[in-house]
Known about the structure:
- The protein is of the alpha+beta class.
- It is 34% helix and 27% strand.
- It has helices at 9-25, 42-48, 95-98, 100-107, 156-161, 163-169, 171-193, 234-242, 280-299, 321-329, 339-348, 359-371, 424-441, 451-459, 471-479; strands spanning 56-74, 77-83, 88-94, 114-123, 129-140, 197-198, 204-205, 217-220, 225-229, 247-255, 267-276, 303-306, 309-312, 317-320, 379-385, 394-395, 398-409, 412-419, 464-470.
Amino acid sequence: MPNQTPVNAASEQAVRRQKLADLRAAGCDPFAITKYEQTDFSADLQARFKDLPAESETGMTVRLAGRLVSKRVMGKASFAHLRDKAGDIQIFAKKDVLGEEAYAAFKKLDVGDIVGCEGEVFRTRMGELSVRAARITLLAKSLLPLPEKFHGLTDREARYRQRYVDLIVNPEVKQTFIKRSAILRELRSYLDGKGFLEVETPILTPFEIGASARPFLTHHNTLDMDMVLRIETELYLKRLVVGGMDRVYEVGRIFRNEGMDPKHNPEFTTIELYQAYTDYHGMMDLVEEMMKTVAGKVCGTLQIPYQGQMIDLSHWERMTMKEAVRKYSGVDFDTVGSDEEAVALAKQHKVELPEIPTKGAILAEFFDAYVEEKLIQPTFIYDYPVEVSPLAKRKADDPMFTERFEYFINATEFGNAFSELNDPIDQKGRFERQVAERKQLDPASKAQVDYDYVTALEYGLPPTGGLGFGVDRLVMLLTDSASIRDVLLFPTMKPLDN
């Protein structure tokens, strides 16, 4: 990792360790302190006394705790800044107020130390709200120096690897994760208000299903069986709908052993939800209302700036996949009669052929090649080919297509929804074909058909609408973050050699 601290960091670390040894020798081990009564916070004081004139007293005594992020010693009077969970406030330390011994101890404190401060709030002649320290307590010694001048840890790799330092020296980063928490809270509030029940389903599953996502494999020693980390929460949630839980959702961590880029991390957070007695059009209405509600409450507006674009969440376009391909490529798949004709069109337009080149799969490739990058404003794309939708219900009037949609913002897919397939015979056949195709492409694949899920369907799944969407991408949008790593506290990173 690039060096983010002064050249003499090693010697400074030695000095700090010696200070700790001296404290312990004097019977003052800061790590032995277990509690400090914190009665006030910097942001509350800044708001309460925002109109206090310069050189004014408040008569209010407070007890603050936090990290020293600056210190300036000036003879018999010194200044420091204390950063707590809410912000910063200046500490004024004066020798004749603290006492000679306590003031000498204050001067030995380092930037990065955790301290408690008790004193009266006032505003200085220079107009800065401050606490005149009557007592300062060292609560934890910082043995490593913060990045130079505490102006910020700027190397992105270092920031992701050492998020704890990133949060200390780049306070704005904390706001991203405060907003992430607010987004999750509002999503839950919206779904709870619609009568959905939040549930939890297994993360460890007994075998690899036939879906295209590659799982992480593990082994359970007691049962002596291979297991996988889940790649979705869908099949367990729909089992619950079979069982009579008509509206369920799960905020779930998902694991996929695949590539990494600014939009993908091997583990990520999704919300999947299922509602009995509705279809994919009902899910479209729910998505639009949910997005408007959450953005309005978290951001205060539906006009969302994102990476140089202004995204208007107040308006959502709806197009079938065939309509979108016709609009952006000029190719009308309604006139394509066979797989062979579709292959010829793909070659003519230099569109990559799928591994199994059927008409429907080639339509999906045309969409990827011509359409997705054009979908900047919120857009629903619906009626997907059956070849790429193994869990969606076929359209009654056109069984080559399914009642499925995805929604796109800023040329990125944000969520996926179906009218759920509830015909157990059709579902079994699709599962078996999916697994056979997977093994044809990868003979070493251990993918299996989830026959227990088929059994669940045989007991009867009511007409159901289902939706899954990535929480991380939504947080990226609403916080104007370019990379998924910016909205994950601890993204997956390749270990350093040392």
